[in-house]
Amino acid sequence: MKVTSPKRKRKMGEVDYGIFYTVLLLLAIGTVMVYSASSYYSMFTYNDSMYFLKKQLIWAPLGIVTMSFMMHYDYHKLRKYTPAIIIICVPLLIAVFFFSGVNGAQRWITLGPLSFQPSDLTKYAVVLFLAMTLDMKGEGVKEFKTGILPFLGVAGFFAGLVLLEKNLSIASVIMIVTFIMLFASGGRVKHLFGIVAPAMVGAALFFTISTAYRRARMLNFINPWKDPAGNGYQLIQSFYALGAGGITGLGLGQSRQKTLYMPEPHNDFILSIIGEELGLIGCVCIIILFVIFIWRGINVAMKARDTYGTLLAIGITSVIAVQSLINIAVVTGSMPVTGVPLPFISYGGTSLVINMTAMGILLNISRQIEGKQQIKNL
């Protein structure tokens, strides 16, 4: 593998405008839909229909600022901060257990009006760590014991801490992205698909059915009407919303399910409200935007100046791709219900800023591509 020295002077070009405008468009759509989805809930709960919109209008510009900063910050300099970032994630993930849980899960650090979910930072910290260490490992990744297992061990450690918070979705994102990065860095197919993939699937199934709570959610995914007032309630409301929207939707702001039928409709199930108000057409447009983002992200990875940039671009793109895929699958009843927001669309504070910061890193990589030369020996 080719490794470029961080001290080497680089010519900065233009950003990938496909990624830039796609992210901004998703953010704009998300801001509008957060207001539309949350207005009734906000009025009923906080006596202010714009409660969540006001917060989103603070976090969204802040996210744009952090994205803009990272666009101009040489991504190679992140190497020296990566060990500190990955280490800091450990006490942060443990700290959540000293705060009150929400709906049976302890995922947040709450300080006054602010709340922070360490797992949002952790998933990108793992990407930074894997990109750096896989680049250093080079051809050694082709060995299973010394090239695959150590990376799986580190990723599994952080995924395990996240899983203890009852956050199976983000734990799954971490492990899936790790698998993708190992494959992209040159891991042998027989190791990844013959040993790692079956083990990951087995572990996921074990943790899914290991407790009565997770087993109930799995069973309700298969037949949500078995417990329509309990575990199946949210998914059933999602079906009602998507069905009512039809092809063209009921119109912006006209959702019925957001009127206290769908719990916190501005969060994980916001796509259901989009489907109800903007119809199948609106949902397809959202999906197309994510497909464009993934396509452009892969393009940036293929043209990155060095292996480190390639792996970093693959990891960042994969986080958004996997998380959006899981959210869409959950909302449409294609997989068990789990709490994972739709990137750039769902309401979020620090999580939105962290995502936008990662987009800035990806855009910085796009500014340092070497023409159409692709990284070899991957």
Automatic annotation (TrEMBL):
Pathway: Cell wall biogenesis; peptidoglycan biosynthesis. One of its GO terms (biological process) is peptidoglycan biosynthetic process. It comes from the Bacteria. The keyword Cell wall biogenesis/degradation applies. It is found in: Cell membrane. It is a multi-pass membrane protein. One of its GO terms (molecular function) is lipid-linked peptidoglycan transporter activity. This is Probable peptidoglycan glycosyltransferase FtsW. It comes from Clostridium saccharobutylicum DSM 13864.
